[in-house]
Amino acid sequence: MEEPIYQSIVQGQRKRQKKFTVLIDPDKVTPELLVRTIDISARSGVDYFFIGGSLIVNDTLPECIDVIKSCCDIPVIIFPGSRLQIQPNADAILLLSMISGRNPELLIGQHVMAAPALRESQLEIISTGYILVDGGNETTVSYISNTRPVPYHKNDIAMCTAMAGEMIGMKLIYLDCGSGALHCLSESMVKAVSENIDVPVIAGGGITTPEKARALCKAGADMIVVGTAAEKDPAVISAISQAIHSSIAV
Ligand code: 1GP
């Protein structure tokens, strides 16, 4: 099966071209904010949209995807909080296993339930090891998943978890402090993880400035995800995109 989106991420990693993803939480965008976010993202060279959330209250996910698809060519990748967020009108889905936690539902249970719908869909399926890291506050993902994050300074736990995820066969590792985290990942943790695995590393949660995005790219992240800061002011997308796309790992 072809994997155009995953291959574009791997190509970026090989060429040391960092990728920028804007996360859209359908509950948090008004129609006006969504169109403005898409417009700025398209003009700023954003590489992908993630769409989804740990908890979605309103049923606007399919419409949001349709709006994005009708306005631009940026690929839309579902970042699902549960199997209820599988939408066939997206381009791809991160099939997340929450490998930082010990909740079997989020390691395999939801996946078993979702498998027939995923098989039926045309979605590109990207197996992703998701590692939640303490970002200084209790986030929705921590509460909803009923799991404890990796402690902020425990680089060795994050590193071994990522290594195990890669050995199991996961194609991406997503290090995330959770949406709206007080502080983002440490550069030392991103470095420890990226130096010890070969698959691309995604970094997200609490990244609000171009400086933070650039620092995490230099530490070894292959993709940066920004949600909350873009919701507050989509204008920040342009500066962060520039910082990411001009970064290379040292
Ligand atoms: C959350 O990594 C994403 O899963 C984005 O986090 O909303 O804090 O940017 P923010």
SSE topology sketch:
Elements: H1 4-15, E1 19-24, H2 31-44, E2 48-51, H3 61-71, E3 76-78, E4 92-98, H4 104-120, E5 124-132, H5 140-145, H6 155-168, E6 172-176, H7 187-194, E7 201-204, H8 210-219, E8 223-226, H9 228-232, H10 236-245
Parallel strand pairs: 1-2, 1-8, 2-3, 3-4, 4-5, 5-6, 6-7, 7-8
Bound molecules: SN-glycerol-1-phosphate.
* CATH homology group: FMN-linked oxidoreductases
What is the CA-CA span between the terminal residues?
A: 34 Å
Q: Total number of β-strand segments? A: 8
Strand order of the largest sheet: 1-2-3-4-5-6-7-8
CATH topology tier name: TIM Barrel
Low-confidence stretches: none
Overall structural domain count = 1
What is the overall number of helices?
10
Mean pLDDT: 96
Structural class: alpha/beta
Which CATH-level-2 architecture? Alpha-Beta Barrel
Order of helices and strands: HEHEHEEHEHHEHEHEHH
Alpha carbon gyration radius: 16 Å
Bound molecules: SN-glycerol-1-phosphate
Largest sheet: 8 strands, parallel, barrel
Strand content: 15-25%
The CATH class is identified as Alpha Beta
* Helix fraction bin: 40-55%
| Structural shape | globular
